[in-house]
Amino acid sequence: MSDIRATEPEEAYKKRIGRYDHYWDMRTFSDARRKTSKPRPAPAKSRYALIVRRLIDERGRHTGDVIDIKSPQLLEILLSINDGVEGLNLGRSEPEISPQAMYYSYPGLLSRLKAAEKEPKDDGRMMLDIKAAIHVIEEDQGKILRDVQKLTTERKITFDLLWAIFRPNGFVYQHHAETNQDRILLGLRNGYDRRRDGVKYFEVHCNMIHDDGDHFGLARQNLVINEFRGERPLSDLDVCPLDCRPDRDALYSRAVELGKFFVSMPAHSYHEISGQAVRVDASGDLEKFYTSGRVMISPSAYRRFSDSNYNPGVRKPLARDSLMDDQYAIVTPVVFGFSFDRKSWGAFALSRLRPIDWDDDAFEALVLGDKQRNLIHALVREHVAASNQFDDVIKGKGRGLVGLLAGSPGCGKTLTAEAVAETTRRPLYAVSAGELGTTPEAVEGRLMRVLELAQMWDAVLLLDEAEVFLQRRSVSDVKRNALVSIFLRQLEYFQGILILTTNLPEHCDPAFESRIHFSVYYPMLDAAARRSIWSTFFVRAGISILDADLDRLSSYSINGREIKNAFSSATTIARANGSPQVTLQEIDVVLSVLKDWQLATRKQEIENGVVIV
User: Fold this and answer.
1) Where in this chain does the record put each AAA+ ATPase domain (predicted)?
2) DSSP-derived secondary structure for 585-602
3) How high is the mean pLDDT of the chain?
4) What residues contact residue 545 under an 8 Å CB cut-off, 6+ apart?
5) Which of 501, 490, 567, 507 is nearest to 534 (CA)?
6) What pLDDT is stored for residue 199 in this prediction?
7) What pLDDT digit, counting tens, does each position of 404-462 carry?
8) pLDDT band for position 337 (cuts 50, 70, 90)
9) How many Cα atoms within 13 Å fall on the side-chain side of residue 441?
10) Cα–Cα 20 to 30 A to 443, which of 51, 65, 521, 609?
11) Where on the phi/psi map is residue 168: left (φ > 0), alpha (ψ -120 to 50), or beta?
12) Hey, what domains does the chain have and what are their CATH numbers?
């Protein structure tokens, strides 16, 4: 609270304040004014700096106040204090301001008064007008000022006083629950409202800087605090003014750092991530999900292909290269893209994105003959180096690299595709044939989308279980013929790396022979191949193992995927038991369970006549 009375004994500034009741005159059916009952002299209206009008409805009830600004000097000061604030009426021919906006102007008025008092040649009229405005605030809202000061000193607030701490153009802190991270926005205005069920809430309208896929710039975000009773610690609120946070400086610095990271990211940015994310489910509701793997942050692809309205639109575009720190601070850390491990579009935490940890030894880990491994490696390397040097006779054709990997499950087909992606440092976009649909119409649309995304992201596309598109065409099966024809046509114009896998290579249509650049058949794993896979897992885990133990493990007739799952499960058991690394004991437990399962299923197959002994 100020102490203007001590500096102005005669309280001359009070003579610059007028108070009137603004009501509806039932006799004349027009607006009318009468002086509010106050024991003070009534100078001419032209001498008022400001007039407080109490609004009275036709039933005589006080519904609110409006403050008319009559002093040009006071008007100029208020305009300066509230520069950029939305919803003001100070630019009208008869300027006015709400008590709420006047309350927000209180610190600025005190600051202007203090500065004016230090001037060697002060403007007496201007100082009177500032003091008059300060007096109106303290007289009409003094209790609010005192209550807010006391509560915020104790880091508390009540629901009815939330409006008083959320000042326009002030930074707002929010814990974004959907992605479990902190963020900063710029508060614009606020207010109270009720839902249809009668529940009251407080809403803060904010600006943030965001990339909506079409534009980069300012977007709106409304934050809600539901009604609560009594005093509540500010730390319990997911939304509060940034200045009310004890870690304000650290939050601001981190927000600026993340904002600069966001702005520096390319249009399609590939990262690793682990943690909570959010997506829109089939019913249109937000659904949290956990992702641990690699993601493509791609706002433009999200906007085009996600079928979601969760991505707010930019209202005012901005130039990325002209931001200041206060703007970097409000760049949203909620980024939109695609999770490859969950095969889902979503919103992810910018704060948890990490650089890709590429596996440079991926090709060496393949259980594959040297001839086949070297062929694939060379073709992929050359395709990446010379992808723009060759074109087919028809523009846009012939630039793709297509591989066909055939063999039974778990023999290394998917691992080969992963190795290609790691070697080329590209995303691996894996799609199963079943995801594309079964009708020609559905397949054509979804396949076009998948191929476009793969080219947009410069990804290695793995089309798993592709038999339905590769099968030899026949006169009798029109539907299959259509699927194969659609696939062949779109394959011609794909310019990236496409790897197809199949368990039935003998059924491939001859037309694919001229479109496939390399084909590899993966036989069933023998003991030597299984030994190599087991050895790779132990080496990568930093665990030494005796040759005799490797020989014993490789005697189990299981495929590569089953070996991987067994090692992973054994590692989980070891951690649950408090062991720093997996041992043969945990692996033997998992293999024993797997063996029991295989025996049980084999017995069932024999009983059903599936297996002939």
Assistant:
1) 399-525
2) HHHHHHHHHHHHHHHHHH
3) 87
4) 534, 535, 538, 584
5) 567
6) 93
7) 998 888 888 999 999 999 999 999 999 998 898 878 888 889 999 999 999 999 999 99
8) very high
9) 0
10) 521
11) beta
12) 4-151 (no CATH), 154-349 (no CATH), 370-522 (3.40.50.300), 527-607 (1.10.8)
Cβ-Cβ contacts under 8 Å for 164 (sequence gap 6 or more): 103, 144, 148
SS3 380: helix
Tokens 């130039």 locate to: 319
Q: Is the pLDDT of residue 33 over 60?
A: no
DSSP state of 120: S
Residue 55: count other Cβ atoms within 10 Å of its Cβ.
Answer: 15
* pTM exceeds 0.90 for this model: no
Which residues fall within 8 angstroms of residue 254, CB to CB, at 6 or more apart?
182, 351
Is residue 499 within 8 Å of residue 403, measured between CB atoms? yes
Give the number of other CB atoms < 10 A from CB of residue 547.
9
The angle subtended at Cα 330 by Cα 186 and Cα 210, nearest 5°, is 110
- 475 by Cβ neighbours in 10 Å (0-12 / 13-18 / 19+) ranks as exposed
3-state secondary structure of 24: strand
Cα–Cα distance, 490 to 107 (Å, whole number): 66
Element (H, E) at 187: strand 181-194
* Cβ–Cβ under 8 Å, residues 184 and 256: no
Report the candidate in 280, 274, 313 with the shortest Cα–Cα distance to residue 295. 274
Give the residue carrying structure tokens 């005669």. Answer: 10
Q: What is the pLDDT of residues 264-318, one digit of tens each?
A: 999 999 999 999 999 988 888 899 999 999 999 999 999 999 988 888 999 999 9
Mean per-residue pLDDT for 83-112? 92
Which residue has tokens 């301001």?
97
Q: Give the type of residue at 37.
A: S
DSSP strand pairing (460-464 vs 497-502): parallel
Whether residue 444 contacts residue 485, with contact meaning beta carbons closer than 8 Å, is answered with: no
